[in-house]
Amino acid sequence: MVSRDPLDPDNFGKQNVGIYRMEVKGKRKLGLQPVPMHDIALHLHKAEERGEDLPIAITLGNDPIITLMGATPLKYDQSEYEMAGALRESPYPIATAPLTGFDVPWGSEVILEGVIESRKREIEGPFGEFTGHYSGGRKHDRGAHR
């Protein structure tokens, strides 16, 4: 998934290419888990502070190098495309997404463009996780401590 910093959209380094869990919720609706410590959560927070939706481009069928970089924790202003280029020893090829104009991995088989709607949250899951356990919707009515 590709997103841009809403306050600095032309900064190539602050563009994010990441891998995020998604859930099909309807014909034209996906659920997404923007983990708080990931760049997309920061992009979403900045968009929500401005009262805006966050444009995104979901890319499927990508080059394994960009998939690896999307899963690699980098500094906020480090480009996944530049790191992928370093691994290839040549600039990573990118294309322009038709709706958002985002830089997307060249050769992606499918590009889905849309927005993360500002301040809309829903229960997700349950999901089978890598630990062999399920995660999903939880409701906690009260917390206690000593």
Automatic annotation (TrEMBL):
EC class: lyase
GO BP: ubiquinone biosynthetic process
Region (Disordered): 127-146
Alphabetical keyword list: Lyase
Superkingdom as given in the UniProt entry: Bacteria
SUPFAM superfamilies: FMN-binding split barrel
Record has Transmembrane helix as a keyword: no
Record field: compositional bias (Basic residues): 136-146
Gene Ontology cellular component terms for the protein in this record: cytosol
Stretches of the chain forming a coiled coil according to its record: none
Entry annotated with the keyword Lyase: yes
Recorded GO MF terms: 4-hydroxy-3-polyprenylbenzoate decarboxylase activity
Pfam families according to UniProt: UbiD (PF01977)
Domain 3-octaprenyl-4-hydroxybenzoate carboxy-lyase-like Rift-related: 8-139
Stored InterPro entries: UbiD, UbiD_Rift_dom
EC numbers, comma separated: 4.1.1.-
Name the UniProt record assigns to this protein: 4-hydroxybenzoate decarboxylase subunit C
Gene from which the chain derives: kpdC_2
